[in-house]
C-alpha cells in the first residue's frame, strides 16, 4: 500500500471521528468568541492560501472544535497544496490562544500547530519521489464575526520543521 493512500485514509479517519459528536448534540452549537471553556464541534469551513518552499497554492478545510480551556481553541485543518512540481497533503492540529477582541467583532489569536505532510515530488525523467514531513508551526491571525453569523479568518504560520517555510491563509467558518 502506498504512502499517499495511507496518509489520506489516516487524515480522513481523524476528520470523520469528530462528526458523531456533532450529531449527538442535536443541533447547532453556539459560536462563541468569549473566554468560556466549551469543547465540541462549533463549525467548519474552507480555507485557501499560499505557501513557500515549496511555493504552492493551498486549498482545504478546517474545523472549529471549541475551547478546551478558557480562550484556548482547538482548530485542526487539512490542506492540499499544488505547485513547484510538488503535490502536498498536510494535516495540522492547531491550538490558538484567543485574545480579547480589539472590537466586538474582531478576535486576534496566536499559537501553534503540529503538522504532518505528505509530499509527492514530480521529478524530471519519471523519477517521482515522495516524502513525509513533520513540523511544528507557530503563528497567529485574526477572526472577524460576520453579520451572517459565520466568521472570516486570516492567519500566518511559520514552520519550524520541513513542511513549509511560511503559509498565509484565509478562511470562513460556518
Question: What do these coordinates show?
Answer:
The chain has 174 residues and is mainly beta. The protein has one domain: Beta Barrel (Porin), CATH 2.40.160. It has helices at residues 3-16, 19-25; strands at 38-52, 56-69, 72-83, 86-98, 106-121, 129-145, 151-159, 166-173. A hairpin with a 7-residue loop joins strand 5 and strand 6. The longest helix is centred in the first third of the chain and has 14 residues, at 3-16. The chain is elongated. The model is unreliable at 5-36 (pLDDT under 50).
Helix and strand pattern: HHEEEEEEEE
| Major sheet size, sense and barrel closure | 8 strands, antiparallel, barrel
- Write down the overall mean pLDDT: 82
Query: Strands across the major sheet, in which order?
Result: 1-2-3-4-5-6-7-8
- Report how far the terminal alpha carbons are from each other: 36 Å
Number of domains: 1
What is the second-level CATH architecture?
Beta Barrel
Beta-strand portion reads over 45%
The tally of beta strands, per DSSP, is 8
> How would you describe the shape?
elongated
- CATH C-level category: Mainly Beta
Helix tally?
Answer: 2
CATH topology descriptor: Porin
Q: Please identify the oligomeric state.
A: single chain
Amino acid at each position: 500500500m502506498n504512502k499517499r493512500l495511507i496518509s489520506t485514509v489516516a487524515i480522513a479517519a481523524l476528520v470523520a471521528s469528530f462528526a458523531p459528536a456533532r450529531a449527538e448534540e442535536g443541533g447547532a452549537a453556539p459560536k462563541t468568541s468569549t473566554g468560556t471553556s466549551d469543547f465540541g464541534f462549533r463549525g467548519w469551513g474552507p480555507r485557501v492560501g499560499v505557501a513557500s518552499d515549496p511555493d504552492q497554492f493551498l486549498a482545504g478545510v478546517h474545523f472549529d472544535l471549541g475551547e478546551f480551556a478558557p480562550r484556548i481553541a482547538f482548530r485542526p485543518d487539512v490542506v492540499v497544496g499544488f505547485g513547484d512540481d510538488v503535490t502536498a497533503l498536510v494535516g495540522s492540529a492547531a491550538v490558538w490562544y484567543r485574545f480579547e477582541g480589539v472590537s466586538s467583532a474582531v478576535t486576534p489569536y496566536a499559537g501553534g500547530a503540529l503538522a504532518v505532510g505528505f509530499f509527492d515530488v514530480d521529478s524530471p525523467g519519471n523519477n517521482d519521489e515522495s516524502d513525509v514531513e513533520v513540523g511544528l508551526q507557530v503563528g497567529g491571525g485574526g477572526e472577524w464575526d460576520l453579520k451572517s453569523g459565520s466568521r472570516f479568518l486570516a492567519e500566518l504560520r511559520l514552520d519550524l520543521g520541513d513542511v513549509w517555510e511560511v503559509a498565509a491563509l484565509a478562511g470562513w467558518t460556518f
